[in-house]
Amino acid sequence: MSKPGAAGRHRIAWGAVAAAMVLVSTISVSVPRAFAQPALRDDQETRRYLQILNDAFRIVLQSYVDKPEPKKLYEGAMKGLFDSLGDPYSVFLDEAMMSDMNDFATGEFGGVGLVISKQLRDPKKAEDQPLYVEVVSPIENTPGWARGIQPGDLIIKIDGESTAPMLIDEAQKRIRGPVGSSVVLTFRRGQGQVFDAPFVRARVELPVVKKALIPTAKGNVGYLRIIEFTKLTAPKVEEALAEFGKAGYRALVLDVRNNPGGLLDSAIQVADAFLDSGLIVSTKSRLPYENSVSKAKPGQSLPPELPIILLMNKGSASASEILAGALKDNRRAYLVGENSYGKGSVQQPFPVDETGFKLTIARYYTPSDENIDKTGIPPDLESKEPELGEAEIAELGKLLDSGRIESFATANPGASVAQRNAFAALLAKDFKLSERVLRRMVHNELARKTVAPAYDLEFDAALNAALALFDKPDFASLLQGTKTVKELVEAKRAAGAAQAAAGAPGLPEPAVGSPSR
């Protein structure tokens, strides 16, 4: 992977920061499904190439000038095999990747309960300045949370060994361990406070949802952010809806922005919580036994007349799009935000020994019989944050390099909105950026040093648009008048074709590859 230039780093600073969960589980390998599938077609061509592969592997082992490792040959051959498919979702999984996938699927881990990232290099400091592991946030009700670890704390040692030379995966692996075992982390807080914190690793649940009630003039609105779809997601959604019901609420916002997906069954179960009847999703494959149709069961977890708006963006993919498509095509939710990512395929994991692979086995279709692969789902109402131009990104780089926002946040951790806005106004005199951008940058830097709230009404335009829609007296008729996913996608394609025929620039190409988690 190439290193980002200055503009790239500044785009990263403006956007979301990827982080890794410091969590753990032991992998449980089921009977390899790879060996339980129907036999390969026994034709001459298939036998020929299998024999060639076998012969090549044996010859390299026997005759290469240096003694090769069979494991490396195997992994290299497997990677090449899946690369040849030209499918970014069909991939070989080494031992670490298989373990991580199993962790994600179960949604339960053992560990200390900290979300971490690696520090980015500060251009104002020397090249040999050590870069440590930084705490993004503690996970509630975990050892890290109980110990009072704060966002922005640096983990400078793990069991006495410096984290400066460690990659994030290595640091994560060292912090992981069996439930009940111990690890000592050394933290630096602020400029000079350094302390050791011994932890006993405990079982940690992946934070798959965030929930809150938003008070409005006309009553509470439930806010439910679904972070990823694991085995724990559906129960957590049911739990949140029950809490909202007890407290009383008049509408619900489902937020799947930047949710990269997860388990197909989990998305189906979550969709079923909002539907009494109707199709949720269907899958179609060249193998008949991989075809399926999933329908909603009678009964749902909330009143059928309760208004629902689903927030999505270009980071909403796969299982998120299954949920969005099911609620949209059944006219159960109104979609606000951006066009979704466009991942309409289904992968099956196949454990093989300690490694394995993911293989695309089918494509899924929304209830209106549309496969949204590489097109995504258009929203009913578009609402997105303005993107910075190249000149603004360059100016943002100057601001970040100056360190002024970081210094302000360090000196004023409890700054009020008025103080933040006053500081942003000062910055606007020296940097050619809008005050709104500057206010958001200051807000985000301060938020890094606290546990972020579930929602943000100050800067979240899509959420504010959703709340305004709930106040419209004709929301029910607005929802019933929406187009299906198929109608919207066909209209989008027709518009693209018309633009192309007229010689105008076409619609932007969809993203290629898997969205990052």
Any low-confidence stretches, pLDDT <50, length ≥5? 1-39, 506-517
How many strands, which pairing sense, and closed or not: the largest β-sheet? 7 strands, antiparallel
What general outline do the C-alpha atoms trace? globular
Average pLDDT taken over every residue? 84
User: What's the architecture of the largest domain in CATH terms?
Assistant: Alpha-Beta Complex
- Number of structural domains: 4
Question: What brief labels describe this structure?
Answer:
6-stranded mixed sheet, 2-enoyl-CoA Hydratase, Chain A, domain 1, 4 domains, 16 helices, 7-stranded antiparallel sheet, disordered C terminus, 517 residues, Pdz3 Domain, disordered N terminus, alpha+beta
Description:
The chain is an alpha+beta fold and 517 residues long. The protein has helices spanning 6-14, 44-63, 70-83, 95-106, 143-146, 168-175, 233-247, 264-272, 319-329, 390-402, 404-411, 417-430, 435-447, 461-470, 475-480, 485-501; strands at residues 20-22, 91-93, 108-111, 114-118, 133-138, 154-158, 161-162, 182-189, 193-200, 202-205, 209-214, 221-226, 251-255, 279-284, 292-295, 308-312, 334-337, 345-352, 355-365, 381-382. Helix 1 (6-14) crosses helix 10, helix 8 runs parallel beside helix 9 and helix 12 crosses helix 13. It is globular and about 75 Å long. The two termini are 17 Å apart. The chain has four domains: 14-26 and 108-205, Pdz3 Domain (Roll), CATH 2.30.42; 42-101, no CATH class; 209-380, 2-enoyl-CoA Hydratase, Chain A, domain 1 (Alpha-Beta Complex); 390-450, no CATH class. The longest helix has 20 residues, at 44-63. A hairpin with a 3-residue loop joins strand 8 (182-189) and strand 9 (193-200). Strands 1, 4, 5, 6, 7, 8 and 9 form a seven-stranded antiparallel sheet that branches. A six-stranded mixed sheet has the order 11-12-13-16-17-20, sandwiched between helices. Strands 2, 14, 15, 18 and 19 form a five-stranded antiparallel sheet that branches.
